[in-house]
Write a structure and sequence with these properties.
Number of strands: 15
Order of helices and strands: EEEEEEEEEEEEEEE
Number of helices: 0
Oligomer: single chain
Helix content: under 10%
Distance between the termini: 13 Å
Structural class: mainly beta
Length: 162
């Protein structure tokens, strides 16, 4: 299908991978030991259809379809090395649909881990939502989800053009 640029600035024709967004955690978030905690993504890098809500940290797309979803979280502890393992979750309507765990399995402790996770998911375009959560298992210091503007912890998705 040809793409047409209209005189009013709109585009017709073609298929676009929208909605799409990328959000960042820009400051370190403390996290309790062995507790699944929603990551508080507070800065939008971009959000084509205004579907990400930085007050509840959820993506609620306004277009039904299949979405490619990706998240990265850097997990650590306030004193290092003290991290035993770290987990990352993508949740749809509060239920885990994808999980990633880094665990050395030898009772070793790490300074920090960077977990990545991706999933394809169908969304209804009205009430379905996605969020990301993390969990740390640590020795004694407080757990952390590292933030910053360099992309240590981020969440992104886009609608597949199918």
């Amino acid at each position: 299908m040809p793409i047409t640029l209209n005189g009013d600035g709109s585009i017709t024709g073609g298929t676009f991978n929208r909605p799409a967004f990328r959000v960042l955690l820009t400051s370190t978030q403390n996290i309790n030991h062995n507790s699944v905690t929603t990551i508080q993504f507070n800065t939008e890098d971009f959000d084509t259809n205004n579907c990400f809500d930085t007050s509840n940290y959820r993506f609620t797309p306004n277009v039904a379809g299949y979405y490619y979803v990706f998240a990265n979280a850097t997990l650590s502890t306030s004193s290092r090395p003290n991290l035993e393992d770290g987990e990352l979750f993508i949740r749809k309507n509060g239920t885990t649909i994808a999980r990633s765990e880094i665990d050395p399995r030898d009772d070793g402790e790490m300074g920090a881990v960077s977990n990545q996770i991706a999933v394809l998911v169908q969304m209804n375009g009205s009430s379905d939502y996605l969020d990301v959560a993390a969990k740390v298992n640590k020795q004694s210091s407080s757990g952390e989800i590292e933030g910053g503007t360099t992309g240590l912890t981020y969440f992104q998705a886009f609608k597949l053009a199918i």
